[in-house]
User: Fold these one by one.
Assistant:
Number 1:
Amino acid sequence: MSNRDIGSWNSLISSLAQNSEGAIALVLFREMQVEGVKGIFLLYLVSVLSVCTDLAVLINGKQFHGMVIKHGFGMYRPIGNATLNMYAKCGCMDEASLCFGNIVSKNVISWTSLIIDFCKNGLGDEALKAFGQMEMEGVVPNKITFLGVLYACSHARLVQEGLKHFTIMINSYCFTTMIEHYTFMVDLLARFGYLEQALEFIEEKMPVKPDTKLHITLLSSCYFHKNVELAKSVGKRLLELEPREAGAYMLLSNFYGRDLEGVVQVRRLMMDRGIRKEKACTWIEINRRVHAFESGDRSHPLHRYIHNYLDVLIKKMKANDYMPNTSLVVQNVDE
């Protein structure tokens, strides 16, 4: 295309962002700047901020936020919401809260984003405070807002508060519940040891059939609280519902512990069905470079230095008589 204007650039960058090609989208955005393309920055800033959110690249996100401030777009809801989510994804909730405060006309999406972002960063109490402030300002919550509220109650260990908000959502706001609401309620109850109540909640209060994620939530809590009998029952249901869910096999295998016959049975079933657990992956940004790591990964160029440093840390922990609790460590069933 010989004559590329702001519209064609925005279409390309937005399409790449929506199809999980964020890194390429950022490269093209830089190329657009080099070409000196003129136009309304508002059109593409939401897209590039969303890319920074998906990739959790704080340096780039700050640069684009600087452009937002420079052109006076921080007060606009779409830009404000995108900037809020970018900082929250990078773990910077102070900056995220400032961006939220700069939005002139906050709507339910703005408030819901703030509440859920607080939850994702482990700040359940702050999320509930934000929900209270939202109600005081007369903003009517929606079903997604209540997902954040229930999530917050779980992080803040407020079981009764969660039950109250669930009832308010149904009776006061007359919202049609989603399967995710029930999953959060089961997580809230089971996480803090109310396993029987969680099971009762599933069997008696759910108008829809429980899905895979809900069963995994309950199974994980059974594992944490070492309720073997309930775990076997839930695990059996889960494998009937979703026989290719690798996480269920891992949890069940670890449940059997010293029962080698049970462990072998689960692993054989997993092998016969061709199930393999995908390796966990984590990443961190250092000096504008994103470093990704998988379980057991030795492909990083500094892996020897990293492992040596880990050995030093382990020796220091032992010297300080630190004894890790390995009773809840999940073993790799492929080993």
Number 2:
Amino acid sequence: MSQKKIIEDLKKLNANQDIDLPAYGSWPASKHCFDDEKVVNALKAALAAQRPLLVRGEPGTGKSQLARAAAHVLGRQFVSEVVNARSESQDLICRFDAVGRLAKAQTLKTETTDDAKIKAELKPEKFISPGALWWVLDWKSADEVHTNSEYQLQRPEAPKGWKPEHGSVLLIDEIDKADAELPNGLLETLGNNAVTIPWVNQTLGNGTSIPPLIIISTNEERELPAAFVRRCLVLNLKLPAADKLEEWLVKRGELHFGERCPADIRHEAARQLLKDRKAAKDLGLTPPGQAEYLDMLRALALFGEAGEDQHTMLAAISDFALKKYPVLHGD
């Protein structure tokens, strides 16, 4: 069944698709354009090989949204986990509330001497909260554990009409924020598309469910372990070269805002971004990218609807959107 599902999904991924992404969980409504055949082929390769896709690139190139757009096109559940400096690999699988279980044990000792009742109330699975990897590897068991647990953390939102057999897409976002222990701790899980939950002695995945498409983003702030990178397919997501970037940005602006931001405004904003990108790169700073460009157009679209002159407001706000370091202001 899983091979048939993967073949069906491969046929759904095509270049030259403009996609409307509805609001989903904490993600706002947006648009995505699959206009690069290399990106589409990378997604297809990850699906077919059943390997994670590691997406490298500077901030603002659309790495995170790529996963959400892929899930939408494939009709799969979208689950995301944003990594931070305190994240551990175990958090992606599940969290165990040892403190809560200890407190429960102490309370029960004052209430009853019935050993059978105490044992039933202290079952480990009643103090487990499934993590992102558990949800995408085996939704049904994750949902059952979540429902019966006293330690209920976030439950992913399922799209209308979605069923576990439709599969999932998992985004592990900004993995470079964590120490090397996190990617190293995921080697076996990502290599086998399976994991064993120690407290319940249950193996998830391993051919028993539709293999998830796992997309992992990095901003290259920290080098990832070589063994981890070897487990992945790698997509280097870059903005077009400077001589092609203006037109590329203008088309992206049109996709998102249409005539709410006329062509001359989109071009002027793109030229300003090119100028500020060069200044940032010359100083060794992270340059503004697509995200900053779209933020600026979003503001300008509303200024226009409020009766403000968009050319005047572009000159007034570009410093706030594009120059994010004091040195770029001469400070």
Number 3:
Amino acid sequence: MSDLDRLPPLERDAAHAALREVIGTAKIDAVTPVSGGATSARLFRIDAGGENYLLRIEGEPSPLRNPYQYVSLRIAAEAGIAPRLYYVDETSRIAVMDFISRKPLALYPGGLPALAKALGELLARLQATPTFPSFVRYPDIVARLWAHVCRTSLFAPGVLDRCNEHLAHIRATYAWDEANSVSSHNDPLPANILFDGNRLWMIDWESAYRTDPLVDLAIVGGSIARTPELEDLLHRAWLGRPLDDALRARLAHVRALTRLYYAGVLFSASATAPRATPDTSLAAPTLAELAEATRTGRLKVGTPAAKHVVGKMLLASFLSDVATPGFDLSV
């Protein structure tokens, strides 16, 4: 019995139907669960007929589920930005694509400067594709997620008032003509950037739809190009020139929105754990203090407590523009 046969009956049957469509009568030599990426989907490496495939089964739909993710995935795959796509069934939410072995981004030739440049070029290629469908304005989806956090009672009354006021200010001053929106991944964290030893790919397209081109730029800048020098390389590779003052001012607003979005993701996770009393403080550690806490075991990676602390660090970045912890949602 393989791991596929342990799936719930409907998913098991849909998975086998997908594989029959792709590999025909070829014998399946191995089925291996795969981790990686920033996704709730279940992933399996399928070895069959001398080829390696990735079978992806979408996780339980959330209230913020993007209904256009598979359209966006097809466009990205056809452009060679996502791995080759063999099969999609939107009803069963299953896809089969090439399996690509991941190498650490730290091994990218030329180091971080070359990686920042390559990512800027990759974003430019993505934004030049046939435009993804429209879903929701980025400030609106950030506000919806943040409203959910506020309803969880994770924080005591009044603690988040300053954050709410800052979000309202940004939404009131945010300027973007939706007619100029472009194809966007909207979640290009390092976990969703795959290096195969030769080139970069983008994976996990659940959040992909058309939006402000600065969203992806802000996320990559906050997670990988985290110095002025690297950010300049990223911007030049993306735009072909440095950003002007007007674009930098707009990027600051979008960057703040991305920080609040990922804070909301982490707080939503931490809110699922039992808590004796609501949090009464937004005090957050520095990056050095976070590293020391995880090194000594006072903060365990992957726990709700760790996610809560990193969420507070992102809130501090949202409010004051201090350095972020790098959007490492595995913490």
Number 4:
Amino acid sequence: MSTEVSLPAPTGLQAFADQARQYADQSRAANTRRAYASDVRAFANWCAARGEPSLPASPAAVLAYLIDHATTLKVVTLQRRLAAIREQHAAAGFDLETSSSAFRDTWRGIKRAHGQPAVKKRPLMTVDLRRAVATLPDTLPGRRDRALILVGFAAALRRSELAGLEVTRRDGAAWVEERPDGLVVHLARSKTDQSGEGAEIGVPYGSNMETCPVRSYRAWLNAAHLTEGPAFRPIDRHGHIGTEAVTDRAVARIVQRTVEAAALADGYSPEEARQLAAAYAGHSLRSGLATSAAANDAPGHAIQRQLRHKRFDTTSGYIRSGQLFKQNPAGMAGL
């Protein structure tokens, strides 16, 4: 969604006004901009079907839109659409009044009546990760998947970060540096670093050969003969390696496919294995590292540093999950 910026626009300043609009467009992540643009279009179509103006829209129309979709859209989606509508109005210089008690009370009622806890994907704990990667064959796709899963887990990467890694340094790209002590993942930009300051994440050698992210990554590069470009790439059924990077959705599919294979190896039926795998996603690597580390009493500040959280309370959610049974009062009650 384009963001309008008002600047004086005499002939000599027009170029700066155009640049200001371009920079304003970059103030949010690309995924957020696409989502907001889609949200605004959905609201405009709804208004057009009812003969209501969408810009500027009346608070009553916005509230009616929220009510009309309260049973068909999740509250988190409605919340994002409301934010998009507000931002569109502010960018266009319109004041959308949503602070009245009637609006606030109705919106609060919608959230209370239809709000649900977020459905979180299951963390891939270390013990489950070991079983999963053990099922991967010693083939080109198997080596790629092993390296992708282990590096993503050890570096606590988001799936988009993992998919975007490159073998060597390139301006504006995330890349992996090989050092004697392990790997260093250099991130150019991340979800919590929209200003692009970057971050360095250390990935040490694993204590087990089968689950060592450093050895697995190097084995994949050697097998694929990669010296530059994307680190993780598609491989077709003939064994040909692509030139582009895998997508972030491909990362999720690789995780799910590997978990499903492990479940089948453990004796699950095909249907049970599919259902179990569906509980995991790309984020399961990141949350799995945090939760597993917390279960093994890793310091909270170290977990926060690896996850690159700005706020510790975000990290503490993973720590609570990993330590549910650590010094649990119920376990000390003599039951």
